[in-house]
Automatic annotation (TrEMBL):
This is Hsp20/alpha crystallin family protein. Gene3D superfamilies: 2.60.40.790. Pfam families: HSP20. The lineage of its organism: Archaea, Methanobacteriati, Methanobacteriota, Stenosarchaea group, Halobacteria. GO terms for molecular function: unfolded protein binding. One of its GO terms (biological process) is protein refolding. PROSITE patterns: SHSP. One of its GO terms (cellular component) is cytoplasm. Residues 1-102 form the SHSP domain. Belongs to the small heat shock protein (HSP20) family. CDD domains: ACD_sHsps-like.
Length: 102
């Protein structure tokens, strides 16, 4: 069963893997382009119908941790794109917690 997001795009963290769900009903897989560019997931979809009829979707998702770019996978079922972005185990989390002096 495919998870249908409540919004057009949703990001979840699940045991060392970020999952991005994108609701793209009515598109064919060939009309969807998924890329990892400058630490962002980009999703574009374009469908041209008859004269004056077209659908365009463009969205970027920032991911808060470095990911293993070689292990990224994507599936498209029942109108939902599901992209898995495994966290890079060698990368430390960005930033640090700062203690407040009393």
């Amino acid at each position: 069963m495919t998870q249908h997001p409540d919004h057009d795009v949703e990001l979840y963290r699940d045991d060392g893997v970020y999952r991005v769900f994108v609701d793209l009903p009515g598109f064919d897989p060939e009309e969807i382009d998924v890329a990892w560019v400058h630490h962002r997931l980009t999703v574009s979809a374009r469908r041209t119908g008859g004269p004056g009829s077209s659908r365009v979707f463009d969205h970027e998702v920032n991911v808060p941790r470095a990911v293993d770019t070689e292990a990224i996978t994507a599936t498209y079922r029942e109108g939902v794109l599901d992209v898995e972005l495994p966290v890079d185990p060698g990368e430390s989390p960005p930033g640090r917690r700062i203690e407040i002096e009393k």
